[in-house]
Amino acid sequence: MGIPEVVFMKVCTSTKRVGGKTVKVDIEVVNDTIVKVVISGDFFLYPEEAIHDIESSLTGRKVSEVASILDGFRGSVEFLGASIDDLVSAVIDAYTSCQE
Predict the structure, then answer these.
(1) pTM score of the predicted model
(2) Euclidean distance between the first and final Cα of the chain, in Å?
(3) Cis-peptide into 4, omega within 30 deg
(4) Is the distance from CB of 18 to CB of 100 less than 8 angstroms?
(5) Structural domains present in the chain
(6) Whole-number average pLDDT of the chain
(7) What span, in angstroms and rounded, lies between the C-alpha atoms of 5 and 24?
(8) 82, 23 in Cβ contact below 8 A?
(9) How many helices and strands in the chain, by DSSP H and E?
(10) How many CB atoms lie within 10 A of CB 22?
(11) What is the pLDDT of residues 64-97, one digit of tens each?
(12) Helix (H, G, I), strand (E, B) or coil at 90
């Protein structure tokens, strides 16, 4: 039995969204599993502490689960200058930029 290949990626992406606000995502991924994620930008999120809840909910999860995990925050958080869909796109864009 061979040693499994470990694929590690660390990437940062920063994009301007509709309305001119920036969403920045720093992620570290090992074998398609998010091991660290930091979300920042010049958008507003209420309640403010929800950003930590969002980051925690993504840590340890597969990249393919990002949309469904973040969808669970709809109705419990309010974005100004960005949206949950923008955040999903930013995470997926960061991940796929490493694949090319």
Answers:
(1) 0.84
(2) 30
(3) no
(4) no
(5) 8-99 (3.30.390.50)
(6) 86
(7) 29
(8) yes
(9) 3, 5
(10) 15
(11) 999 999 999 999 999 988 899 999 998 998 888 7
(12) helix
Provide the residue type at 88 as one letter.
V
DSSP characters over 40-73: EES-EEESTTHHHHHHHHHTTSBGGGHHHHHHTT
Q: Specify the pLDDT at position 20.
A: 72
- For the stretch 23-63, pLDDT in tens is 999 999 988 899 999 999 999 999 999 999 999 999 999 99
Residues 6+ away with beta carbon under 8 Å from 22: 14, 15, 16, 41, 42, 43
Work out whether the CA dihedral 7, 66, 38, 23 comes out positive or negative: positive
Structure tokens at 76: 């419990």
Nearest to 27 by CA among 9, 49, 2: 9
Residue 32: strand, helix, or coil: coil
